[in-house]
Design brief:
The complex is a heterotrimer of chains A (about 325), B (about 260) and C (about 375).
Chain A (H helix, E strand, L loop, with lengths): L3 E5 L1 E2 L2 E2 L2 H16 L3 E6 L3 H7 L7 E5 L9 H15 L3 E5 L2 H13 L3 E6 L1 E5 L2 E8 L4 E7 L5 E5 L15 E4 L11 E8 L12 E5 L9 H11 L2 E4 L1 H5 L20 E5 L5 H7 L4 E6 L6 H4 L2 E4 L2 H15 L1
Parallel strand pairs in A: 1-4, 1-6, 4-5, 5-12, 6-11, 7-11, 14-15, 14-16, 16-17, 17-18
Antiparallel strand pairs in A: 2-3, 8-9, 9-10
Helix pairs in contact in A: 3-4, 5-9
Chain B lengths: L1 E6 L1 E3 L21 E3 L1 H17 L4 E7 L5 H10 L3 E5 L9 H15 L3 E5 L10 H9 L3 E10 L5 E8 L2 E8 L3 E4 L11 H7 L4 E4 L15 E8 L7 E2 L5 H15 L4
Parallel strand pairs in B: 1-4, 1-6, 4-5, 5-11, 6-10, 7-10
Antiparallel strand pairs in B: 2-3, 7-8, 8-9
Helix pairs in contact in B: 2-5, 3-4
Chain C lengths: L6 H28 L4 H9 L18 H14 L1 H21 L2 H12 L4 E5 L15 E5 L2 E12 L4 E9 L9 E6 L6 E6 L10 E12 L3 E2 L5 H37 L1 E2 L2 E2 L4 H29 L5 H26 L9 H10 L8 H19 L3
Parallel strand pairs in C: 1-4
Antiparallel strand pairs in C: 2-3, 3-7, 4-5, 5-8, 6-7, 9-10
The chains are: A alpha/beta (about 325), B alpha/beta (about 260), C alpha+beta (about 375).
């Protein structure tokens, strides 16, 4: 049996985007190895989410929703999830490698005597085995990993790695999962969620940085970079040339005499790529260069480049990203 | 109050990680090892709690790892921890999360505990599972990825913040509990020279699996690493071109999502 | 780097390195550019025990040895040579002199405050007419009741305007060149003490170098260091420690310069090639690395000798001569590898180049070191000659 359980994470009563990505992954496994796919939603909005996902190829969708499960708690949720894994006999459990998934599923794995693969970026079938790919050593290398025993295998998959599923198939059977969790048995619980203050992340901690150079021409033009950065939840940086020209404060300077940064994505706009600047951002995982001059040295360090005027490219990029984020 | 902090020896954050010739793991020659950076926050928080509670509170470092981990344990003692347990056993090489948690649970039960601090994950296998499995084994709650920690005056519970997508989850937990620590929770102190001198006299209790009463290695669900893969080479810059600039931008977004997967 | 350090020594080195890169580097950048003295750094160094490394625990220090001191000085110097010189004077000269020659009263009054960096130490020997030649010190100290009255001027005094305890050498007997010199612990608020000219230096801009002026400066007799006339002995004995400290500072500068050269030349592309792949660069790097390692070993050895209480003047001079030479050569070559940008303030190598220069001058010029070394070599030869 290779039955699969997809855990649909809810936030603010709505299913997270990752749910559809997990369905794609589940389809890949079921497509090769057979078995049925079931879904599970726990917490506020679970019943309506189950309804919403009826037409996504699930056999059954379980939901559990009551006062004790309204706020997230590892203990409460682990109980419900473990019960469903045991009752359905799921061989694979797919979850998001999110704050919740990373907190919840190691406990579930222990409770169902299974094994868990954290932070996976891919899941596929090879030689009749489901193989997950995950980064190790802070993403400096990857491993492909599979389970050695016939035990429940939990695969936590990072968001945005697998394309989302489209609706398909007949309506799923919706099953209310009774939960015997009571609030007084929960020892640790989330009281509330406080959204991050409007400020942008620190340059040195940001996952995404949008930086401007001398070609910004004026301090006020940094607005277009800010808009892009805010959309991506990133920070705004500047080259020394931009700082020296008074377009940006020194606190934003990336480079030898500014901040040394290491984001996942660095978007260099109108930055020529002086060695001073490269020294501060060369370890960025992915570097995108936008520059009018096709011979700018920044293109030697960049992974992707667009030769063009940043004042045209950046707004287009912001528009394009707005459509998908 | 009995405070346990977990410490793991991991390759330096700065280290270049390469896959070995056989493709069965990483090249360990010439690697520099450090205290797992997140464990430093755990040690610091443990010391702060000891300072707050006072009395005969004690911080005990627990490490599972090779003989060479002693130097890092000694560093934690120099930071101010009181004593340490070091589990050294060749059988524990490349132990998975379940095995690690089972061994640690045994030690921690023997030592006794009121609160356990550890890093949110170890930067080698990056699994981030041991603390939560350990919590399950000890039948206590856990709070992961803590960025704020405040012990109640009676020492029976704690309020915390934990980092989640786009916000902070305000948490409350009864104690004993396991708290896994995130950057920003505190500023870990250095091992000062007086601390280094004092650490020389502090006790590190070495234990093997047999000492802990295990006849064989505790084993849960097993994983098999099928292969090791290097990072894709950052080759030539891909210049995205199209007749219309808008299409070039579209293509760029697609590449960022599907090829490099950063969005 | 692979010299067999003990576990304890490795932990000391790591603390120094971490402090230097995380806490000192950001402050050092601005302080060296603007020529300001980073007072707050010393408070932190005091908390870490770095300002009382060799001071016994009973006087509030750490009770460690010279070997630990050189490990720390090298790491600090890699990031800020100015901080390293302030530390070296404080530890190797002021703390050392009071610890070694001070009365119980002096030790109790000064060492605990020095060891925690509540006050900083300075060491005032040099005068306009007495540089390398110690015996020509002119400053006078005349006993009057239960005080000594000091008159004269000291120049090039590191930390002189920031120190709470200055070791001052003055002549208690103008006629006896050898036994007429005495040493005192002077506080800046003793009447008649004032700070004169503050030098504008080529490098080490985050340390201060000043003139100290003594006009009928009244020093209580209990602040005499050792007995009257012990000044020459103290001054000569202090040379070794001072030189070892500056040697450690030099090797730190050299290591930093090489690190910068390697980092830069891996990035810089000319003629479609990283410049590190040019043989001319490779050879420079090989020579730098070899010289640095050799300098380090000389320093480690002399520090061990001094910790064992063995005579080590020749070895201290050798370490100082070679390490300071290495600092200058390495900084020169590393700047050359940088090319034009290396000559701008934008790159650290510019500061290292300037900071390196003085290591061949202060604490005895390279010429003086050669005098000391050759004198010993000839003495040793003559001693071993058959009758």
């Amino acid at each position: 049996m290779t039955d699969i359980l997809v855990f649909g994470e809810l936030r603010g009563g709505k299913a997270k985007k990752i749910t559809k990505e997990l369905i794609t992954a589940a389809d890949r496994i079921a497509g090769e190895l057979g078995g049925e796919i079931n879904g599970l939603f726990v917490g506020e909005g679970a019943a309506s989410a189950a309804e919403e996902f009826k037409g996504y190829g699930f056999k059954r969708i379980f939901y559990a929703e009551d006062d004790a499960l309204k706020n997230y708690s590892t203990e409460g949720y682990a109980k419900v999830v473990s019960d469903v894994i045991k009752s359905t006999g799921a061989r694979y459990v797919l979850a998001g490698a999110t704050a919740m998934g990373r907190d919840l599923f190691p406990r579930v794995a222990a409770r169902v005597d299974g094994v868990m693969f954290s932070d996976c970026v891919d899941l596929r079938v090879e030689d009749g085995r489901a193989i997950a790919k995950r980064p190790v050593y802070s993403g400096k290398v990857f491993i492909e990993i599979t389970s050695k025993d016939e035990r429940p295998t939990i695969v936590a998959i990072r968001p945005n790695n697998i394309p989302p599923a489209e609706p398909k198939g007949d309506g799923a059977e919706i099953v209310k999962q009774d939960s015997d969790v009571t609030i007084d048995t929960i020892r640790a619980i989330a009281k509330e969620i406080v959204p991050l203050a409007g400020g942008r992340p620190d340059l040195t901690e940001a996952d995404i940085i949008v930086s401007g150079g001398r070609a910004m021409k004026d301090a006020s033009n940094f607005k277009i970079l800010e808009e892009l950065a805010d959309l991506l939840g990133g920070a705004v940086g500047a080259s020394r040339a931009a700082v020296d020209s008074g377009y940006a404060p020194h606190a934003l300077q990336v480079g030898q005499t500014g901040k040394i940064v290491n984001p996942k994505l660095y978007i260099a706009c109108g930055i020529s790529g002086a060695i001073q600047h490269l020294a501060g951002m060369r370890t960025s995982k992915v570097i995108v260069a936008i520059n009018k001059d096709p011979n700018a040295p920044i293109f030697e360090k960049a992974h992707y480049g667009i030769v063009g005027d940043l004042f045209e490219v950046v707004p287009l990029l912001t528009e394009e990203l707005k459509k998908i984020l | 109050m009995k405070i346990i902090t977990l410490l793991k020896r991991v390759p330096d954050t700065e280290a270049r990680i390469l896959i070995n010739q056989e493709g069965t793991g990483i090249r360990e020659d010439g690697l520099k090892y450090v205290i797992n950076p997140y464990d430093e926050y755990a040690i610091e928080e443990g010391l702060k709690v000891r300072e707050k509670v006072g009395g005969d509170s004690k911080v005990t470092v627990v490490t599972m790892g090779p003989e060479e981990a002693t130097e890092l344990i000694r560093t934690a003692l120099a930071m101010g921890a009181d004593d340490a347990v070091h589990i050294v056993d060749p059988l524990l090489e490349n132990a998975g999360p379940f095995t690690s948690a089972a061994v640690l649970a045994k030690v921690i039960e023997e030592e006794g505990f009121d609160i356990i601090f550890c890093g949110k994950q170890a930067i080698d296998d990056d699994m981030a599972q041991v603390q939560t499995i350990l919590a399950e084994m000890l039948d206590i709650p856990q709070v992961n990825v803590a960025t704020e920690f405040e012990l109640s005056d009676d020492g029976k519970k704690a309020v915390l913040s934990r980092r989640i997508e786009g916000g902070d989850e305000k948490y409350e937990t009864a104690l004993p509990a396991i708290i896994s620590c995130e950057k920003g929770l505190n500023e870990p102190r250095y091992a000062s020279l007086p601390g280094i001198m004092k650490a020389k006299k502090k006790e590190i209790r070495k234990k093997t699996l047999a000492d802990l009463g295990f006849e064989t290695k505790p084993q849960g669900g097993r994983a098999e690493i099928v292969r090791w893969l290097p990072l894709p080479k950052s080759g030539e810059c891909k210049i995205v071109e199209a007749e219309e600039l808008q299409d070039a931008v579209k293509e760029l977004v697609r590449l960022l999502r599907e090829e490099s997967k950063v969005l | 780097m692979n010299y067999p350090l003990s576990e304890e020594e490795r932990i000391i080195q790591k603390t120094a390195r971490d402090f230097a890169t995380k806490d000192l580097a950001p402050v050092a950048e601005a302080a060296n550019k603007e020529g300001t003295f980073p007072d707050e750094v010393y408070t932190k160094l005091g908390e870490l025990g770095f300002m009382g490394i060799t001071v016994p625990e009973e006087y509030g220090g750490v009770g460690l040895n010279n070997f630990s001191l050189v490990l720390v000085l090298e790491e600090i110097s890699r990031v800020c040579a100015s901080t390293a010189v302030t530390m070296s004077v404080h530890n190797s000269l002021t703390n050392w002199a009071i610890k070694t020659y001070g009365s119980e009263d002096l030790k109790k009054r000064y060492l605990p405050r020095l060891a925690t960096a509540e006050i900083l130490g300075a060491y005032a020997l040099t005068e306009p007419s007495a540089g390398s030649d110690v015996s020509s010190v002119r400053m006078s100290a005349v006993k009057k009741g239960n005080e000594y009255i000091l008159n004269g001027t000291k120049i090039f005094i590191s930390t002189g305007n920031k120190a709470g305890a200055v070791i001052v050498f003055a002549r208690t007997n103008p006629d006896d060149r050898k036994h007429g010199l005495s040493a005192f612990v002077v506080e800046p608020d003793f009447p008649g003490f004032s700070v004169g000219k503050i030098e504008k230096k080529m490098g080490l801009k985050a340390s201060t170098t000043v003139e100290l002026v003594f006009e009928d400066c009244r020093v209580p007799e209990e602040n005499l260091l050792g007995e009257e006339g012990a000044g020459m002995k103290i001054a000569l004995a202090g040379l070794d420690g001072g030189r070892i400290g500056i040697a450690a500072q030099s090797v730190g500068i050299a290591q930093a310069a090489m690190d910068e050269a390697v980092k830069f030349s891996r990035e810089r592309i000319q003629f479609n090639k990283r410049i590190i792949d040019f043989q001319s660069t490779r050879w420079k790097i090989a020579d730098m690395a070899t010289a640095i390692e050799a300098a380090r070993l000389l320093i480690y050895r002399v520090a061990k000798l001094r910790d064992e209480g063995q005579p080590c003047s020749k070895e201290a001079s050798m370490a100082k001569l070679f390490a300071s030479r290495t600092a200058n050569r390495t900084a020169y070559d590393a700047l050359q590898i940088h090319g034009g940008v290396g000559y701008t303030e934008e790159f650290l190598i510019e500061r290292l180049y300037r900071d390196a220069r003085v290591t061949e001058i202060y604490e005895g010029t390279s010429e003086i070191q050669r005098l000391v070394i050759s004198k010993r070599v000839i003495e040793e030869y003559e001693k071993s000659m058959p009758e």
